[in-house]
């Protein structure tokens, strides 16, 4: 489905932005890049900024007009600063990603990014089913196009992952069992006595506090072993002294 | 609260990335940029790529060491590719944004971005309570640092819009500052030597593991005092023996 999502850059002025866009796309597993009337392309600067994503550039399609680039698309979304004067259906990036992802199961979808200086023209907005608007600092709301693409592609990629199951498997790690922890807490209490840090009557509140600290840390069994080794070493000094 | 969020770029090689990072920050209403040992800074290229965000560059702090940049921070999050071999608490960007936003109500929070070529070093990861990992194409998972920053800053900005502050203040407890924790870690290392538990050459991996354990626990200043008291008591035995 990600293959059905076209990124269309219109009238891009700086080739570095084309390269950065290619990299952002590949990072987020998008592959279809279309350039409409780029000012300078191909370009060594685009290739340099693409880093390892030059395959995206090699396969990209260059068109003279937007309509050629949009042939066969079932949905067109334009990336735009918030337009207050025009009543367009506007989506936030997350809602945009849901819609784009859902529709990409059915056919090709295009997301348009306009010129660095002036964005999308009215004739280009006219092709859009929706506009997607990235919330931004009202005092400085214009994102670089590769940065805007990164945010939107990230939301689409997250959407693609959540659709196939949890993004991050193996999140749960082994933690020490409660009996292992109890053994440690007893050892800690004894060691604190042995080294002369505390006596049992005073230390109940302190012990409780230390328990909370270590429970919060969710130590795994090996970490408990390390901690007990340290305690034993501290106690060992004492038994050596006694001898 | 956004003012309490520090973006820390470590050892950045390309000044263009510093400029792009400044722009991404300003777009997402972040203002505190720290540079640790940048290769080339100030730079005309950074200023050019910052576009209208040169105010961020003018106010940025440049440090020689990471510890200086982290002074007074209550939470440190490192941006990193997914680490499969190391058991670090890892967050997705959205969960990271929630945590960062919540804690920024209480004090300063730092998000670290490593070198373009090699990311964060072990000694830098050692300072992190959490790592944040941006899900990406497994075949090409390394994002440009300004792009990675854009995604994370976007999630934080979204969080700031959806929430006008923690509903229940006082939920967050005081946690020890990074310099307090560093003092404790040094004490722990010394104590482990003094009690004969370890020698410095063998113990690097072990120290790292203990750091992670205690960072995870987010001890408060009083807890650090208790732990240091225990360490001193363990060490005291030794000095008593020496006499």
From TrEMBL, chains A, B:
GO terms for cellular component: cytosol. InterPro entries: Alpha/beta_knot_MTases (IPR029028), RNA_MeTrfase_TrmJ/LasT (IPR004384), SpoU_MeTrfase (IPR001537), tRNA_m1G_MTases_N (IPR029026). This is tRNA (cytidine/uridine-2'-O-)-methyltransferase TrmJ. It holds the Pfam family SpoU_methylase. Belongs to the class IV-like SAM-binding methyltransferase superfamily. RNA methyltransferase TrmH family. GO terms for molecular function: RNA binding; tRNA (cytidine(32)-2'-O)-methyltransferase activity; tRNA (cytidine(32)/uridine(32)-2'-O)-methyltransferase activity. The keyword Transmembrane helix does not apply. Residues 5-154 form the tRNA/rRNA methyltransferase SpoU type domain. The gene is trmJ. It is found in: Cytoplasm. Its EC number is 2.1.1.200. It catalyses: cytidine(32) in tRNA + S-adenosyl-L-methionine = 2'-O-methylcytidine(32) in tRNA + S-adenosyl-L-homocysteine + H(+); uridine(32) in tRNA + S-adenosyl-L-methionine = 2'-O-methyluridine(32) in tRNA + S-adenosyl-L-homocysteine + H(+). The keyword Iron-sulfur does not apply. Catalyzes the formation of 2'O-methylated cytidine (Cm32) or 2'O-methylated uridine (Um32) at position 32 in tRNA. It comes from the Bacteria. Keywords: Cytoplasm, Methyltransferase, S-adenosyl-L-methionine, Transferase, tRNA processing. Homodimer. GO terms for biological process: tRNA nucleoside ribose methylation.
């Amino acid at each position: 489905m990600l293959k059905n999502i076209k990124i269309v850059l219109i009238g891009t002025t700086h080739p570095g932005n084309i390269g950065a866009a290619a990299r952002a796309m590949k990072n987020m597993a998008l592959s279809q890049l279309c350039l409409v009337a780029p000012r300078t392309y191909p370009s060594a600067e685009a290739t340099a900024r693409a880093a390892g994503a030059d395959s995206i550039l090699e396969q990209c399609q260059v068109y003279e007009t937007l309509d050629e680039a949009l042939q066969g698309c079932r949905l067109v979304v334009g990336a735009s600063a918030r337009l207050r004067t025009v009543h367009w259906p506007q989506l936030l990036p997350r809602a945009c990603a849901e819609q784009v992802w859902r529709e990409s199961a059915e056919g090709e979808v295009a997301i348009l990014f306009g010129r660095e200086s002036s964005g999308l023209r009215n004739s280009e907005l006219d092709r859009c089913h929706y506009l997607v608007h990235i919330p931004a600092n009202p005092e400085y709301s214009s994102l670089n196009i590769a940065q805007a693409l990164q945010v939107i592609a990230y939301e689409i990629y997250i959407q693609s992952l959540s659709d196939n199951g949890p993004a991050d498997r193996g999140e749960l790690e082994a933690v020490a069992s409660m009996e292992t922890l109890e053994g440690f807490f007893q050892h800690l209490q004894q060691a604190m006595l042995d080294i002369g840090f505390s006596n049992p009557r005073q230390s109940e509140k302190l012990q409780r506090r230390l328990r909370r600290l270590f429970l919060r840390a969710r130590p795994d069994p090996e970490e408990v072993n390390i901690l007990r080794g340290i305690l034993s070493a501290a106690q060992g000094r004492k038994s050596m002294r006694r001898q």
